[in-house]
Structures are given as C-alpha cells and as structure tokens.
Design goal:
The complex is a heterodimer of chains A (298) and B (237). Chain A has 298 residues and is α+β, with helices and mostly antiparallel strands. Chain A has helices at 2-17, 19-55, 69-80, 93-103, 108-112, 134-145, 157-199, 201-209, 214-253, 269-292, and strands spanning 58-63, 85-91, 122-127, 150-154. Chain B is globular and about 50 Å long. Classes of the chains: A alpha+beta (298), B alpha/beta (237).
C-alpha cells in the first residue's frame, strides 16, 4: 500500500515536472477522443432519429363511399383483430374534408363549389414495433386490401423500402467508420506516449543504472498513461458538451431546422464512461508497449 | 572483485571491440583502464556492469557470474555498484537532493533515512549548500560531484567511472580525482576508464592499457619510471 502511494505520488510528480510534454500528450489524446465521441454522438442521435421516423410509419386504409356506419364498424373490428395493429383511428369523410381545408386554405373556395365531399373516410393504423419491417408491412397491406369495403391501402411503399436500405447501409458504414476511428485513436495515443517516453529515455536509463527494477520504473509510467487518458477524455467530453450546448441552442433558434418530434441529445452516461475507459486503457497500453523497448535488461 | 577470463566482445565479426581480455581486479584497488578513443574502454566497463554481454568468455563481478545469473537480478547487482559518466547523467528537472536520493529510493529506503544519508554524502562532496538546486545551474565540476555523490550514497563495493573528467578543466579534474582517492580510501574499489595520460599521475595506481580491444600491458604508475608489473595475460596482482 505504501509502495502504491509512492507510485501514485511519483506519477503526479512526473506529470508536473514534464508539464509541457504532458500537456501536448493530453491535448492530442483529447483531440482523438473528441473525434471518437463526436462520431458516437452523431451516430446515436441519427439512429434514434431514424427509429423515431420508423415510429411514424402508418398504414392508411381508404374506405369505399358506399359503406354504412355499421359496415365501417365491422371493418374496424376485422382490422383490429390483426396482431399487427397497435392503434386504429377512424377519420370520417367530414374530418378528412376539414383536415384538408386546414392544410390547404388556398383551396377552400374550390371545395366549397363541390356538391359532394369527394374525400373518402379512412382508417389510420399504427403498427406494433415488430411489424414495421418493409416486407411485413407489405404483407399486412395486402391482407387488409382483401377486406370487403376497403378501397385502397397506402403505406408509403417506396419510402419504407428506402428507409430500410438506408438503415442497413448506415449501420454497416457506422461500424466501419467507428472501427477505423477507434483504431486511429489507439494508434495516435500510443504513438504520442511513445514520443514522450523517447524524450524521457535518459531518465529510464539512469533509473536502470542505479538499480531500479523494471517494475519500479514501469508502474509510475503506467499510472501516468492512465492519468493522461483520463484527463484527455475529460477535456474531450467537456469540449463535446459545450459544443453540443451551443449547437442545440442554435438549432432551437433556427427556423430552418425545425425538428418537431426530435431533440438532439448528449451522450448517455454509460457512453461517457466508455469514452473515458477507452482513453485510460489506451493510455495504459500505450505506456506498456512503448516502455518495452527501453526496459530490455542492459 | 572483478574477474574476466578470455573475454571477447564482437559488434561485427570484422572489428572485434574486445579480444581475449583476462583481468583480475581485487577488492579495494584503484585501477585505470587507459587507452585512446576506440580502444574498447567503455565496452569493458559496460561488460562489468552488465549493459553488454560478452560474445565469449567469463565475467565474475562481486562473486556473481554474468553468464549464469538471471537477467532480472541485474538491478540487485547494480545496487552494489556506483557509476560516474563524462556527461554526468543527471535528471535535470530534479534537485541535487532528488538526484542523489534516487539511488536509495529505488531500493525502498525510508524517506528519513534517505534524507540523512543524502545530506551526509553531499557534505562529503562539498555540496551541502546546493541541495535544492537543479543540475543545470551548477558548474561542470559541481554536476560531476553530484554524480559522484549519487554513485556512493548507497556505499557501493565498486565504483565505475567512464571519462569522469572529460568535460572538466585541470583544476576541477584534480578536485574530482582527490574525491575518488578519498572514496577509495574508504574501501571502495574504483575503476576509471580514461584516455587522459595526466590522470595516471594520481599515484600510485594500477593501469590496464588497452589498444584495439586488446590489453597492451598492465602498469603501476606513480613510482619512478612507471614500472611495468604485469604481464601479457593482463592480471593485476
């Protein structure tokens, strides 16, 4: 325990003594981790955004004009019996017209000249999560279309297929980019630490000359590596957080980007821990592998 | 203290650094390894403190055979040795106290004991007033005295010095050599590698003359006429 305290003390002393070189190392680690955590944040937000978009998927069932209220009630009952259905809401002909008028106030006059309401009654169906895949929606739509009294079914076929393809592409691309960024981060951090050790090779040589064991030399360097990683992660996440605040404020004020149903969020706590762990582990491994060459017995 | 038996060291097969070195240095001796640049002096010292391994032959230092012991025990062996170099090899960001204390710190000696011993040794080398100074603001002679203090603070049985006065003027050289003599008088075996003939006048000392990696002769200086006492096999007795 006493020894451990000595090593911790030594590591902090070294951080102070080699302030400039440590500052540069921490700066580089911060930048690398900032790129990694920014990527994480963008990816998580994008994924959540796309999931929310998927939640918006709904099937519209247009009913034939000749249906009586009883027929409509029966159709509703039949549709509700499908396991795919999460929520079903009826939009009557009158509601449809009123909605149309509200949405297109310029066309109001043209509608007033019509004798009959040309808009059909419809049923909007929200699907259970597990039935939102493009193929599953397609099958469900076909089944609904066969119900007597149903005139047409719409579910944004092209959009759903495009979305599914995009999601697939984004996941693979994110995985590839994520791995490359992670490897680059590890490479940069371990090489930066290698350079700092190179600058201190005389110190290592002197320690060896006075009879220090490799363990005695190594441990403070390991602790330093971990501390550099920790500080690097801290600064990276601080910068990311303040950038996020600025960006969200800007988005909030901008009329161009109005994301009504989606609010950009910061990295969740376990991701912050993950980024910090990447920094610390890379710092430790960087020291471990770089020290090896200086600690051959000679 | 040091025994070398038919030791060879080759960095390249064409130009051996050391050839057939046989040497016996007794406890408490003061020995110069003398020769021009490239004669193999530094290589010989490196073999003694285990920084290099012989290509052939046996080296026994302080009863330990370098060919047989585990490499991880090298630090333990070095704790019984002191080293002084031409370029001082001091930690420039640490104080004089820290530099000298380092040799005790690595052994795990208590802080209070380190303080006591460092202050004592700095008094011996005349640097009591420079305890909290960093090496870079010291003169060359003072820096070398710090290095010597570090080398002797753990009371080593053997002190090795590689061109310890190479960066110093004549006056400082005298001062440092006097210090070595005092340390030797305490019973520490001293081996100094040098190309400087003038050092050999700090008498009486034994000299192992090296040339082209071979022992040219072994002399005792300081007596009239620099008497050659030994031998083609190079043993000093």
């Amino acid at each position: 325990m006493k020894r451990f305290y000595y090593f911790i003390n030594k590591a902090f002393q070294n951080l102070r003594h080699f302030f400039l070189i440590n500052l540069i190392t921490v700066g580089i680690i911060s930048l690398s981790l900032l790129v990694l955590s920014t990527f994480f944040m963008v990816f998580l937000n994008l994924q959540t955004y796309l999931n929310k978009l998927r939640d918006q998927i709904q099937v519209s069932v247009y009913l034939a004009d000749g249906n009586t209220p009883e027929d409509i009630s029966l159709i509703q009952k039949k549709i509700n019996s499908f396991p795919q259905v999460k929520k079903l809401s009826l939009i009557t002909k009158e509601e449809a017209l009123s909605f149309f008028k509200d949405s297109f106030p310029g066309q109001r006059k043209a509608l007033e000249n019509l004798k009959d309401n040309p808009l059909p009654a419809s049923l909007d169906i929200q699907l259970q999560d597990e039935y939102r895949g493009s193929e599953k929606v397609k099958i469900f739509a076909r089944q609904i279309k066969n119900i007597p009294g149903v005139e047409d079914v719409e579910y944004g076929q092209t959009w759903i297929e495009g979305y599914a393809n995009f999601l697939k592409f984004m996941r693979s691309a994110a995985l590839a980019v994520g791995v490359v960024i992670l490897l680059a981060t590890i490479f940069i951090i371990s090489n930066t630490i290698k350079l700092t050790l190179f600058a201190r090779k005389d110190e290592i040589e002197i320690m060896k000359l006075v009879g220090a064991t490799n363990f005695f030399i190594r441990v403070p360097f390991f602790i330093e590596g971990i501390l550099q990683g920790l500080l690097g992660a801290f600064f990276a996440l601080m910068v990311l957080f303040f950038s996020y605040q600025l960006f969200s404020n800007w988005i909030g004020q901008s009329s161009y980007f109005s994301l009504k149903f989606f609010k950009i969020f910061f990295l969740p706590f376990h991701h912050l821990l993950l980024i910090t762990a990447v920094g610390m582990i890379t710092g430790l491994l960087g020291s471990f592998f770089s020290l090896g060459r200086y600690l051959k017995y000679e | 203290m040091i025994q070398m038996l038919h030791v060879y060291k080759n960095y390249s097969p064409k130009y051996p650094a050391l050839s057939d070195i046989s040497l016996n240095i007794e406890k408490g001796e003061f020995v110069f390894i003398f020769g021009p640049s490239g004669a193999g002096k530094t290589t010989l010292l490196k073999l003694i403190f285990g920084a290099e391994h012989p290509s052939k032959g046996q080296i026994i230092v302080n009863g330990m055979n370098f060919g047989r012991f585990k490499k991880s025990t090298l630090p333990l062996l070095r704790r019984k040795m002191g080293f002084v170099f031409q370029d001082f090899k001091l930690l420039n960001h640490r104080t004089v106290f820290d530099n000298v204390g380092l040799a005790l710190e690595v052994v795990g000696i208590k802080k209070t004991e380190i303080k006591r011993r460092v202050l004592k040794v700095l008094k011996h080398v005349g640097l009591s007033s420079r305890i909290n100074t960093v090496p870079l603001v010291l003169s060359g002679g003072e820096q070398q005295r710090v290095a010597i203090a570090r080398a002797i603070v753990n009371e080593p049985a053997l002190l090795l010095a590689d061109e310890p006065t190479g960066n110093l003027d004549a006056e400082l050289t005298k001062e440092i050599m006097k210090l070595f003599k005092i340390i030797n008088a305490w019973g520490t075996t001293i081996v100094i590698a040098t190309h400087d003939k003038n050092l050999l006048n700090f008498n009486p000392t034994k000299v192992v003359a090296l040339e082209h990696g071979k022992i040219k002769g072994v002399f005792v200086t300081g007596r009239k006429g620099a008497e050659e006492t030994a031998t083609r096999n190079g043993s000093i007795n």
